[in-house]
Design goal:
heterodimer; A: 345 residues; alpha+beta; 6-stranded mixed beta sheet; 5-stranded antiparallel beta sheet; 20 strands; B: 295 residues; mainly alpha; 13 helices; flat
Chain lengths: 345, 295
């Protein structure tokens, strides 16, 4: 089911959470709403579900006007960041809830409910836990129950609000992979909210980058990472070295000429230049302009802090490369930039 | 490789004994606990024992006679009726008010919370007086009620109203922090899954608050049966008609009929003891639930 958001605006007292947002979610895609806290992404998701109503704008679910519909009539499944499992019901009853509260005419018989719930519990690999209570489950298990519960009502859209935010790193990675596989199997239109750019880039078919109630860019993970539309997107998606500079004649001079970065797109005047740590190359040079102030080895990667003409830079490379370079803290070096972006300030 | 790699233990390692840094020394603990028990004994146990001692002073026969005397029976019945109306009424109001306050934001929410706490800050005598001023002969609605032939003050309706007012906060004050702490996530989940408002309330909200609800009802009931000040003002003290148990005790005592007074008082004392026991049991059970529900 496709979702069409047009000009949605939402204010909470003085604070504008969403400022005339337009978005189209294609049927069957896995879309990420990515942004920092306060960007409006959760508000947008809740408006889609019917848990909030906007102050202006329109929402179409499958081509039909949806703003007038109550949450129960929208056929959406919602997964909360803190699971929101019914604490006094067993796992089985939690998953069966959506089926049990259907109106008389639509409610399946108890044998049918049992069959469906069992099937779903197998899907989320929690069949032995059917009789347990939520308090007896781990975080990852609870989230899987929440997912099964949302899927039980056979929704046309799945909405997930920072679904892995409350879990630890390893469980998060596992569930990410698992969600992707689930989506590949059942192809349900899914929208998930996250502030973790790695999660968005890994999972989504398309990423919507949001900031302060507006959409900064929509594109595939590769598009938004390689061709960011604005300084915000560039900074948000991954690590950056950031330099305030002035562009003259198409060249951005940084640190009194220590670095010269070509500026594309006809940018002139005050600007900000970005270089990703991975795109900053380091070569040992005894008379080089830069000095290595520190080397940190973090797992398989090495991060190198560099001082250049009063600027602090950070370069990143894998440990093998670091070993072949043979540099140490305190050495002088030369740097070269493989890739950079310049935006007007 | 050294010949002997075993570690020989010293003869004995002195392990530091004594209390942890977080407890008081023995004598301080004894003093504090002893002091608390002494206070309780003097101000709670002693009066309680005195009530039963005085009630049974002339033997069980006199005790029983005092309780089965028609005016006493009427007082007991009236207390039960008043409680039977006030407690369910406040249960409904309390749940509704807590539901509003905990799950929604609306204009006037703070005013509502203040109003809920009002009966606690108002003297019980004033609580009764306001009804006399409203519905009494010379009150705001006095002449209107007289024309309608409706008697509120110095009759049972007045007693019920005064009791409702005085016991209003108990259920709400118990439920509001509980429901606020539980949040609305589960209710939102239920709504999105297709439940109607009623279904959400019965299947999701009520099971989550049931222990707090029982606790609030228990306190409400204890106060409803034992209320004196407010009820005294609106009652008119008509024997056999508008006297609840506390008022009846006062009348008996003022007539120097001590045994009978203490006999009826002993019933109230027993109610207090039962309430205390059930309250403690609920606290113990409810405390577990609350701890488990904090995820």
């Amino acid at each position: 089911m496709a979702i069409q958001v047009s000009g949605i605006t939402k204010r909470f007292n003085e604070f504008t959470a969403l400022d005339s947002v337009d978005l189209e979610v294609k049927s069957g895609e896995l879309l990420a709403l990515l942004g920092p806290s306060g960007s409006g992404k959760t508000t947008l998701l809740r408006i889609m579900a019917g848990l909030e109503s906007p102050d202006g704008g329109g929402l179409l679910l499958n081509g039909e006007e949806a703003l007038g519909l109550k949450p129960r009539d929208r056929q959406v499944g919602f997964v909360f960041q803190h699971y929101a499992l019914f604490r006094h019901m067993t796992v089985f009853d939690n998953v069966a809830f959506g089926l049990k509260v259907r109106p008389r005419g639509e409610r399946p018989g108890s044998a049918e409910i049992k069959r469906r719930v069992t099937e779903l519990l197998e899907l989320v690999q929690l069949s032995p836990f059917a009789g347990r209570y939520p308090a007896q489950l781990s975080g990852g298990q609870r989230q899987r129950v929440a997912l099964a519960r949302a899927l039980a009502i056979e929704p046309k859209v799945l909405l997930l609000d920072e679904p892995f935010g409350a879990l630890d790193a390893k469980v998060r990675k596992e569930l990410r992979r698992w969600l992707r596989k689930l989506h590949d199997d059942i192809h349900i239109t899914s929208v998930f909210v996250t502030h973790d750019q790695e999660e968005a880039l890994e999972l989504a078919d398309r990423v919507v980058v949001m900031n302060q109630g507006r959409i900064e860019q929509i594109g595939t993970p590769a598009e938004v990472y390689d061709h960011p539309a604005s300084a915000f997107v560039y900074e948000f998606l991954g690590q950056v070295n950031r330099f305030d500079c002035t562009v003259e004649g198409g060249i951005a001079r940084v640190g009194d000429g220590a670095l010269a970065i070509p500026a594309q797109g006809g940018v002139q005047g005050p600007a900000v230049a970005y270089v990703r740590p991975h795109d900053l190359g380091v070569t040992p040079a005894s008379a080089g302009p830069a000095r290595i102030s520190g080397i940190h080895v973090v797992g398989p990667d090495a991060r190198i802090d560099i001082d250049l003409a009063g600027l602090s830079l950070e370069a990143e490379m894998d440990r093998e490369r670091l070993a072949t370079l043979g540099i140490a803290a305190g050495d002088r070096c030369a740097i070269h930039i493989d890739r950079a972006r310049v935006f007007a300030r | 490789m050294p010949a002997d790699t075993s570690i020989t233990a010293p003869a004995s390692i002195p392990v530091p004994t004594g209390r942890s840094a977080l407890t008081e020394p023995g004598w301080v603990r004894a003093l504090l606990i002893g002091g608390a028990l002494l206070f309780l004994a003097l101000f709670l146990l002693l009066p309680l024992v005195a009530v039963f001692a005085e009630a049974l002073r002339r033997g069980f026969g006199a005790y029983w006679l005092a309780l089965t005397e028609p005016d006493a029976v009427a007082a007991i019945e009236l207390t039960l009726i008043v409680a039977a109306i006030s407690v369910p009424a406040n249960l409904l109001f309390g749940v509704a008010a807590s539901w509003c306050v905990a799950k929604f934001d609306f204009r006037g929410k703070n005013l509502l919370i203040t109003l809920i706490d009002l009966p606690f800050s108002v003297s019980p005598v004033i609580s009764g007086l306001i009804y006399v001023l409203l519905f009494g002969m010379n009150g705001l609605f006095g002449s209107y009620l007289r024309d309608m032939g409706v008697q509120i003050i110095f009759a049972v309706p007045g007693l019920v109203l005064a009791t409702i007012f005085v016991t209003f906060p108990f259920v709400a004050r118990e439920l509001i922090p509980l429901m606020q702490e539980q949040g609305s996530d589960e209710e939102e989940a239920a709504l999105v899954l297709g439940a109607s408002g009623w279904q959400t309330f019965w299947r999701v909200t009520v099971p989550n608050i049931k222990w707090g609800l029982l606790y609030g009802v228990l306190l409400c009931n204890a106060r409803a049966m034992g209320e004196f000040g407010a009820v005294s003002v609106v009652s008119g003290h008509i024997r056999g008609e508008t006297n609840t148990m506390p008022l009846h005790v006062e009348i008996l005592y003022n007539e120097y009929n001590f045994v009978a007074a203490f006999a009826v008082a002993s019933l109230l004392a027993m109610l207090a003891l039962v309430t205390l026991v059930v309250k403690t049991a609920l606290e113990w059970r409810f405390g577990d639930e609350l701890a488990a529900s904090r995820h």
